[in-house]
Design a protein that fits this description.
Rossmann fold, alpha/beta, 26% strand, 29% helix, 224 residues, binds ribulose-5-phosphate, Alpha-Beta Plaits, six-stranded mixed sheet, four-stranded antiparallel sheet, globular
Length: 224
């Protein structure tokens, strides 16, 4: 029986193999954040001469990439990327995700939006039929913590401030529990529209393009 960490290692390695055909001398690779993304970065380091640079979704990932000798570009210097590789807190069979457990959701959504393909990498514990058991992270402007919390309560959720945590953008996070989502795209649009919400951790309107899922039986590829 493989541990969760061993499954994450396997999928990180599989992700590097998956993206090899997209690499080339001028290629920028989009890189996510989290423990699975960390392992991906480590394996990516073995192929650093096969691409130009990376664009990172957090200071943490940027430091890890730089530490391996991979050049990290400011996203404003990047026009396009063939792939963005990142983990997820939950993913359903439509490849819609909840992300932001590591607090990097805003930059993740931005970097992913520049990439042609979002390659989600996760162990099988992250695959769900309905999104919402994992509380949905919202990056919020500090002055809107109260108003956004009340709005979430009116929608049927309970917002809890993530204590002692500030994002790379200098904002707090509310984790919103209590939703079991039939239509994650509708909820993402509603949350995006609440004044003071910088980013909602639902990645449903633009889901992953492909998911590589590590299971006890090997890597499974999910497409929508
Ligand atoms: C960070 C994220 C991560 O992708 C998500 O939390 C999964 O993390 P891990 O790979 O550590 O399980 O969205 O903001």
């Amino acid at each position: 029986m493989l541990s969760q960490n061993e499954l994450k290692q396997q999928v990180a390695q599989a992700a590097v193999e998956y993206i090899l055909p997209f690499l080339g001398s001028g290629v920028v690779v989009g890189v996510g954040t989290g423990s699975t993304a960390d392992l991906f970065i480590d394996y990516l380091g073995n192929h650093k001469d096969r691409f130009l640079a990376a664009a990172a979704s957090s200071e943490r990932s940027a430091q890890r990439l730089s530490g391996l000798g991979i050049r990290v570009l400011d996203l404003n210097e990047v026009q396009s990327m063939p792939v963005y590789v990142d983990g997820a807190d939950e993913i359903n069979h439509r490849l819609q995700m909840i992300k932001g457990g590591g607090g990097a959701l805003t930059r993740e959504k931005i970097v992913a939006s520049v990439a042609e393909r979002f390659v989600c990498i996760a162990d099988e514990s992250k695959v769900v039929d309905r999104l919402g058991k994992f509380a949905i992270p919202l990056e919020v402007l500090p002055m809107a913590l109260g108003s956004v919390s009340r709005k979430m309560q009116a929608l049927g959720g309970q917002a809890v401030l993530r204590e002692g945590f500030i994002t790379d953008n200098g904002n707090p996070i509310l984790d919103v529990a209590g939703f079991s989502l039939d239509d994650a795209t509708e909820m993402e649009a509603i949350m995006n529209n609440v004044p003071g919400v910088v980013t909602c951790g639902l990645f449903a309107i633009s889901p992953a393009s492909v998911a590589l899922i590590a299971t006890q039986q090997g890597i499974k590829t999910m497409t929508a």
